[in-house]
């Protein structure tokens, strides 16, 4: 699973809350994921994101313009097909 957090170029400090909530959600679920933080205007344009911070999970925009709560991130991760496949192997 890949999680990208997009920030405004030159102001990555605005995304610290999102990064902390993503890490907390991953710890809560016990899931491993690649977490990347970008401050790239080109990536924002490519994904049609005009407000930050933005959260992308497996290259799909999930939240833009506000810091998501931990429970929201947990719900986004749980509904991903890759996560459901991993859980079904364990059960």
Account of the 3D structure:
This protein is of the alpha+beta class. The chain has a single domain, classed as Glutaredoxin, CATH 3.40.30.10. It contains four helices and four strands; from the N terminus they run βαβαββαα. The protein has helices at 16-29, 41-46, 70-78, 81-90; strands at 2-6, 34-38, 54-57, 60-64. The protein has a four-stranded mixed sheet, with helices on one face. α1 (16-29) packs across α3. The two termini are 20 Å apart. 23% of the residues are buried. The model has no long low-confidence stretch (mean pLDDT 85).
Write the layout of secondary structure elements.
Elements lengths: L1 E5 L9 H14 L4 E5 L2 H6 L7 E4 L2 E5 L5 H9 L2 H10 L1
Parallel strand pairs: 1-2
Antiparallel strand pairs: 1-3, 3-4
The CATH topology annotation reads as Glutaredoxin
Biggest sheet character = 4 strands, mixed
Order of helices and strands: EHEHEEHH
Mean pLDDT: 85
DSSP summary, beta strand count: 4
Helix content: 40-55%
**CATH level-two architecture:** 3-Layer(aba) Sandwich
Overall morphology: globular
CATH superfamily, by name, is Glutaredoxin
Oligomer: single chain
Q: What is the count of DSSP helices, taking H or I runs of 4+ residues?
A: 4
What separation lies between the terminal Cα atoms? 20 Å
What fraction strand? Answer: 15-25%
Overall number of structural domains: 1
């Amino acid at each position: 699973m890949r999680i990208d957090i997009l920030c405004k170029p030159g102001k990555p400090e605005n995304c610290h809350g999102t990064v902390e909530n993503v890490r907390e959600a991953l710890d809560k679920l016990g899931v491993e994921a690649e977490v990347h933080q970008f401050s790239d205007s080109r990536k924002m344009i490519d994904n049609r994101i005009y407000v930050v911070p933005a959260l992308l999970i497996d290259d799909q925009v999930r939240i833009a313009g506000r810091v998501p709560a931990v429970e929201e991130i947990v719900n986004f991760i749980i509904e991903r097909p890759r996560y459901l496949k991993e859980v079904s192997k364990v059960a």
